[in-house]
Design a protein that fits this description.
Chain lengths: 228, 228, 228, 228
């Protein structure tokens, strides 16, 4: 079904692109002068098998791509922010929980802060000294976090976003990133999800309105040539 | 093509639903005790023909549905917020514009604040005294606005969201609304877009993770029975 | 000097009060129906001797008062949020630090996240299971944190704020709390600082414009009688 | 009394400065590379006689100083943001008001959006084409507004803040500005209030922790020499 669905989505995207181009959507925001890399929820609950949050194409595409991006950032002193999600109170019957109301939609009750292994960044792309590990409570990496203030103080004007999922945390991070005044780049091969079509239709919407979807090759090249 | 696309999307949604149900997604956040209605970008640039932002199904579905919701709110003293979007500086060559960077993705340069007719709320669903008209600059009705503080101070715990587009301003408003701690309801028939499939796949993602998608009938019934 | 200063400040406050009363300032926001207690920066760096952040009147006034407030909250199931401040990167020469720009004004470089003892909540008023420990990066407990979303989702409408310092983290927390739509109460005896006059003039400004300054007795009474 | 109070405050500030210097407070954040000017609430309700919000030293110090700053900004193409405050619903008995809860502390019910004259920027320092007029609902110019996103997108790294009052809207704007990652400058002669001592103690706290207090001369010189 996936291949039939993709064919059909391609047709839909082609028709939409015609309208979007006529009307002035799908413009390019472009790469800026001072980038940062934001890896969203590439933590064990999302990258390793057997969790409700487990995603697809982690081992063969996302991790290798992010490794290349990390290398380019570290060689050129670009800031890296590793984002993960966990909660201090995961009892669904406790109304005083940092899950807010989100456990009423999705199984965030599986990521308890005390079980560090579950929300730790995947060891294959682990943070090194000087990189931020940012714990968020909601979908967006900006919502209820110090990310915007951190990036501005660091002089960052461009964010490259990877991770999971296309339909939730990656998309909201890109929407908020542009809203906060940053040039937003979605790294195509490094963004995943867990249901058929979700990566495709979300990247299509994102590219039309909120961020430029660019290949990992082009992003690595950019990170390697822009001055930090 | 629309009908073939919808059939194919239905299949994809059915497969995704199976996985989501097994894993604990697609839960219900439910209606709360104190609702507000938020109509997103139902202003002339989006509801009337001939603008780059013009959307579909406005006259036959969205406007009549919103009229019913407004009536139920006004009869029961529920707060109504009419959201629109416009800018003081729409010269794309001026780096000091309240468009931020968004004009580098979409044609927001068509909604200048001085041309009130273009961003005024559609007269068929116009605000009355005591209702808020909120001007936003970004996709989300919460981002860079006083909406969250307003709703909190008013004791609101549930937001019903209508408007356009499913893929941009409605979706980000619902994501932010849940993040801010409000029960989020997407009113199915009152949400539109302008390209094939976009309403369907966005409402699917939203219902899985960020808000309950409910019919206008059920919403009108709720607004008419809950105490304001 | 402290006593002379206080006399002079009392005269100034009396004159200001006359003007404020004539003009309609110094109104009462009042206690609401669902409170939460927020203890700001009552962590070792601020409550124990020998740190640049060490404050006054900790042992004899603030800790005993907060102990009474905590008891009342715990007996009545009111949410408690323990706020502290620390950073992952405290190297002042690293432009990619979560201190943002604040280390260019005050010595936040002394609170490194790896040295948990320095930013841990004072053991005399330590958190118990189910209470939040919130790490912030800036003065306000709301700025760049999930606090507003947490409180709203929990149905809280009133915040009682204690801690240090009156001139920085307590004041900004109260200003933001009111802005976010919460009834704001400053617990007089439980708010401290480290320089002469700062508690007095900050509580005066706060009471005139941003929160009701109330005694610990009255707050304990309120917490003990309002339903959680 | 004002002169006696000021003498006493000077003594208190001297003693506090000793402690602050020993402990590493009162550092300089400094001027950056790309400034913006933010004039807070220099609108008729605050600058003209006869309103509850009327402030002191408007005609002789603040307006002439701001005129000099505006001239320097306009000659060098630095962005200017004129901030004012008003509300769509000022009926205190209406719980659905954009005043939120603030009218329970101060007389914001006097600034109704329909009465444009009352919240219009003072004509002596009126906006020109291309400058933003930002309407806020709370004390801080950043809270619930698009200001941070606007400034980031414009590449601004430094904000110079003028206006009223020292104890409310100016102070919270500076606190939030630093928190958001901007270098914060308080323009000494261009900041006012309406009760004795308030300018002095607030500028003292601000300079110790949140912004550099600088003279209008030095700010004009900076604006005239930094490249826009």
């Amino acid at each position: 079904m996936q291949s039939q669905l993709n064919d059909m989505l391609k047709q839909a995207f082609a028709e939409a692109t015609k309208l979007y181009q006529e009307r002035g959507f799908q413009r390019r925001v472009g790469f800026g002068k001072k980038p940062a890399l934001i890896n969203v929820d590439l933590a064990n609950a999302w990258t390793r098998p057997g969790n409700p949050f487990t995603c697809e194409k982690i081992d063969d595409e996302i991790i290798p791509g992010v490794q290349r991006l990390l290398k380019a950032c570290r060689e050129n002193n670009h800031p890296v922010i590793h984002v993960t999600t966990c909660y201090q109170v995961t009892d669904r019957n406790n109304p005083h929980t940092d899950m807010g109301l989100w456990h009423n939609k999705i199984p965030v009750d599986v990521v308890n802060q005390e079980d560090e292994n579950i929300w730790a960044i995947d060891s294959r792309i682990a943070p090194i000294a000087g990189e931020q590990v940012l714990i968020k409570k909601r979908a967006s990496s900006f919502h209820g976090t110090y990310l915007a203030g951190f990036l501005r103080a660091a002089g960052v004007d461009t964010i490259l976003v990877t991770g999971v999922t296309a339909s939730a945390c990656v998309r909201t991070t890109l929407c908020d990133g542009l809203a906060e005044g940053f040039r937003t780049i979605a790294v195509r091969e490094c963004i995943g999800d867990r249901v058929p079509g979700a990566v495709e239709w979300n990247l299509f919407d994102i590219d039309a309105k909120f961020a430029d979807v660019e290949s990992v090759d082009r992003c690595v090249d950019y990170l390697s040539t822009v001055k930090g």
